[in-house]
Amino acid sequence: MYFLDAMLIFISMLILVVMVLVGVAFLTLLERKVLGYIQIRKGPNKVGLMGLLQPFGDAIKLFTKEQTFPFMANFNIYYLSPAVNLFTSLMLWMCMPFVSVFLSFNLSILFFLSIASLSVYSIMLAGWSSNSSYSLLGSLRSVAQTISYEVSLALILMSFIFLVLSMNLLDFLKVQKYVWLMFLMLPLSLMWIISGLAETNRTPFDFAEGESELVSGFNIEYSSGGFALIFLAEYSSILFMSMICVLLFMGGNVYSFTFFLKLTFVSFIWVWVRGTLPRFRYDKLMYLAWKSFLPSSLSYLMFFFSLKMAIFILLS
């Protein structure tokens, strides 16, 4: 019986991963279309009807390109890093609350934080193993940025946890039956979205890929399949962060079609920001994390902790 249950969970996970990868393919198309219209041009419109087959054309092109072999690279780590990066990005999806359970257990938020912090290592090793000054600089900047914003993400998340008093993502669904947490915690929700942008290395925080000074950052030596895997990992993380935003403070009822509409809207915001805002200055990025978000999230944390304590004392 346990074997059949395990098989069912495994097959469900496999289907979810395939669907996420298809979603990533069409997210890239959405991004290119939206950026095109922001810049008053069409975007992909030649391959298939309105460019619908463009993502598949891109995938075929990337995976059939010639693979480069950097002579001085640390060979094994260099080739494993993109695969590990994509694996950790897809593993995050296993804590998504769904009908077939996956790994959505009582401590699924801890699982999310643990796996999210692992992606730092694959970026660091990808930059270091390429044995190039540009890739090493890009990876160091990316790691510093990711670690800084993980602190604010965790503290913001703790405010939500104090309010819901649970680490199970399903409980967020139950709490928001009548009112979204976004209306109760608007500043924290906006801080979470900004921290999510920094965590996924997206504009205006794409310092790992600062083309003007770093020539594409930690992935400079990657081409063909290795680059495609890093690309897939980044867009999978964007979709996942959008999903977490919907679950935490937009009344994420996963059993409703509106959940997926909200997810699409939040991932559209990620693209919209890219088409609108210029890149931040690096010192301002760190200032925002340590001198703005950290004190604010700590203050909110103390406020919600006091609020829950007051309610507990009044009820008892």
TrEMBL record:
Catalytic activity entry: a ubiquinone + NADH + 5 H(+)(in) = a ubiquinol + NAD(+) + 4 H(+)(out)
Family: Belongs to the complex I subunit 1 family.
A Pfam entry, by short name: NADHdh
GO terms, biological process: aerobic respiration
Function recorded in the entry: Core subunit of the mitochondrial membrane respiratory chain NADH dehydrogenase (Complex I) that is believed to belong to the minimal assembly required for catalysis. Complex I functions in the transfer of electrons from NADH to the respiratory chain. The immediate electron acceptor for the enzyme is believed to be ubiquinone.
UniProt GO molecular function: NADH dehydrogenase (ubiquinone) activity; NADH dehydrogenase activity
PANTHER family: NADH DEHYDROGENASE SUBUNIT 1, NADH-UBIQUINONE OXIDOREDUCTASE CHAIN 1
GO cellular component: mitochondrial inner membrane
Matches recorded under PROSITE patterns: COMPLEX1_ND1_1, COMPLEX1_ND1_2
Bilayer-spanning residue ranges: 6-27, 76-95, 107-127, 147-166, 178-198, 227-249, 254-273, 293-315
Gene responsible for this protein: ND1
Subcellular location: Mitochondrion inner membrane
Annotated membrane topology: Multi-pass membrane protein
Keyword Nucleus: no
Keywords attached to this entry: Membrane, Mitochondrion, Mitochondrion inner membrane, NAD, Transmembrane, Transmembrane helix, Transport, Ubiquinone
Protein name according to UniProt: NADH-ubiquinone oxidoreductase chain 1
EC number: 7.1.1.2
UniProt keyword Ribonucleoprotein, yes or no: no
